[in-house]
């Protein structure tokens, strides 16, 4: 009598290996540069824009707000009257999309790229057994070039993505496309003007004496190079000492114009207002006073920051991560803006017994935020 042994089927692993690979045709060589920070570079255009205090403040406000938001997941169902949101347990990657950094880091940099370039990129580094992503990493938008779209207007997701000149597999790249144009593109002239005003103010700030010129009054005529060298030596000496010495053949003449004549203060104040407009946030949030415009308290400031500045970027991130290539069909990702507003007392716990809702409702929050498709929320 033959003996038979029962063989048990092995259970599938919870997660499979990294999604990155190098195809036989070299279609994903750029993946080898991901997480190799020696290949990452900063954009001179972004550095120049962020040297303007108003732009830096606006970027920091929006990026820090989006960076502190948490992920939630929900599905919807029709109950005969309206669509209900049914919140589901979070996926494994919600707390740390990139296991190597904090959620705040990857989200803030994603928001910054969306604001500056109008798009941002994540690379999928790991998938689960059924093929959905479980880990990502952010790559700088300034290091990504799309062969089928040169910009600065992005018409849709790219099918030819390169990172530092090497191709990336499109299926392993999450492409966030902002509804707003990139700040460094659409605000190029305004940023250039603001930088020129900053340089003009810096020149007057470093002058030890009133601006003027040196005039030769006698002796052998000096060449243009000799005059330039003398002026440079005179200016350098004034940086070290306030006492000057000139011979009988050279006079110093002050110019008649002063910084006040150039209206540098008024011009820079106007450009700060222009930068606030460019960043789509209320001017008072970046310290620019606007006559006739007031706000009531910090609660109103948070709401204004969300409504006017961060909302388009938040919805871009939510809708991109809700695509069927990221999470199963019928599920949606949400950034918890209401939780952010609750920190400042804009929302309260449920005090009534609305039918069709479970847990705390969004009555008070809805007064501060536009309702989602005018439907009540099931929590």
**Approximate helicity band:** 25-40%
Distance between the termini: 62 Å
| Number of helices, where a helix is a run of at least 4 consecutive DSSP H or I residues | 10
Order of helices and strands: EHHEEHEEEEEEHHEHEHHEHH
Structure in words:
- The chain is elongated and about 95 Å long.
- It is 34% helix and 17% strand.
- With 379 residues, the chain is α+β, with helices and mostly antiparallel strands.
- Helix 2 crosses helix 3 and helix 2 (53-67) packs parallel to helix 7.
Write a concise synopsis of the structure shown.
By secondary structure, the protein is α+β, with helices and mostly antiparallel strands.
List keywords for this structure.
alpha+beta, 10 helices, 379 residues, disordered C terminus, elongated, 3-stranded antiparallel β-sheet, 4-stranded antiparallel β-sheet
